Hints:
Elements: H1 9-16, H2 20-36, E1 41-45, E2 48-52, E3 56-62, E4 67-71, H3 74-78, E5 94-98, H4 106-119
Antiparallel strand pairs: 1-2, 2-3, 3-4, 4-5
Helix pairs in contact: 2-4
Amino acid sequence: xxxxxxxxxxxxxxxxxxxxxxxxxxxxxxxxxxxxxxxxxxxxxxxxxxxxxxxxxxxxxxxxxxxxxxxxxxxxxxxxxxxxxxxxxxxxxxxxxxxxxxxxxxxxxxxxxxxxxxxxxx
Length: 122
């Protein structure tokens, strides 16, 4: 499944400016998100990549030493499929912190992304 026409230049440029290890993690997460569903749309908002489907689904927030895969309705995911993975004290947004490539769990993340999309069906 090709993601070629589904990526946007703002996110390409954002990723190019990151430290190498963080760049790799961010690129891998981007691929997982886009491959989770053909319906997901990549956007660049609030100075970071965001992904939406009938509303906001998830985002990638980067720092020097980690990347956060965040979910806009993470509080609802935390009550179900995300309870063992999501962290954060925000009212609605929750996230997973990744410090190295080995932290990436494609199957788990895909499940969370699909569940987050489902929340926007209501």
